[in-house]
Amino acid sequence: MSIAASLVQLALLQGSPAAAADTVWLEQCVAQIAVDAEAAYEEGMAWSNQYRRPEGWRCAAMALVELGRAAEGARRLEALGSSPDYGTAASRAEAMVQAGNAWLIAGNGAGAQRALTDALTLIGEDMTHLADILIDRSQAFALQAHWRQAEQDLDRALDLAPENPAAYRLRAIARMYQNAFDLAVADAERAVALDPTAIEGLLALGHAREALRTGVPVAPGSAIPAS
User: In Å, how far are 65, 79, 136, 153 from 127, measured between CA atoms?
Assistant: First the structure.
C-alpha cells in the first residue's frame, strides 16, 4: 500500500454543493497520488491558488509525503488541521491524523505526538477512530523512548479493539523495553495468533523471547541485545 493510501481518511464535510464538489475533487486528487504524485502535487497547488480551497492544499501536502518530503507535508497538514476555518472538527481531526502519520514517516516522534494529541481533542466523544489514533500515538511515544506512555495508549486501544494484532505487537515492544519480558512474550504470542503471517509480529515474538532469555531488550531489526 502506498503512503498516500495509508493516510487517506476523507472528511465528511458540510452538506453544501460546494463542499460536495470539493470532496469529489479531493477524492480524485488523492487517487492520483498513487499514480503520479508529482502531478497530484501540481494539481493540488493549482486548485488551491485558483479557487482558494483548502482541499487543494491538503492533496498537495499528502502528495509531498508520497514524494519523500514527509516533514514538509506534515507541517502543511498540521497547519490545515489547526485552522478553525477548515470544515468541521471531524475534518480537522482527520487532517491532524494525517499530519501525525506523516511525522511518523519523517521519524519525528514529538511532532507526531503533538498532532495526534490534537486529533484526540478534536474528535471529542466520537469513538469511531479512537483506537487507531491511540495506536498511532503509541508509535510517536515509542520513537521518543517513552515506553510507559506508549503502553498506556495501547492498553486503551486494546480495550476498544481487543483483537487488533498491531496493538499487541507494539505493546510487546513497549513492555520489552520496560524489562517486562514475560508480558512482552505473551503480547507477541497473541499478535502472532491473531495474524500468523505478519512478519512484524513474528519478529516481535523472536525479539521478546530473546530478551526474556538474556534479560536485555533486543533492538528492532537486530538479533543483538540493545545496550
Answer: 27, 24, 15, 14
How far apart CA 84 and CA 73 sit, in angstroms, is 19
Predicted TM-score (pTM) of the model is 0.85
- Closest to 97 in 3D by CA, of 71, 66, 118, 126: 118
Fold of 1-126: 1.25.40
Q: Where in the chain is the domain with CATH 1.25.40.10?
A: 146-227
Which pLDDT tens digits describe the chain residue by residue (227 residues)? Answer: 344 444 444 333 334 445 556 778 788 999 999 999 999 999 989 988 877 778 888 999 999 999 999 999 999 999 999 998 887 898 899 999 999 999 999 999 999 999 999 999 999 888 889 999 999 999 999 999 999 999 999 999 999 999 999 999 999 999 999 999 999 999 999 999 999 999 999 999 999 999 999 999 998 654 434 43
DSSP 137-202: HHHHHHHTT-HHHHHHHHHHHHHH-TT-HHHHHHHHHHHHTTT-HHHHHHHHHHHHHH-TT-HHHH
3-state secondary structure of 12: coil
The span from the CA of 92 to the CA of 97, in Å, is 9
Instruction: Output the DSSP codes for 47-99.
Output: HHHHH--HHHHHHHHHHHHHTT-HHHHHHHHHHHHH-TTSS-HHHHHHHHHHH
Top CATH class of 146-227 equals mainly alpha
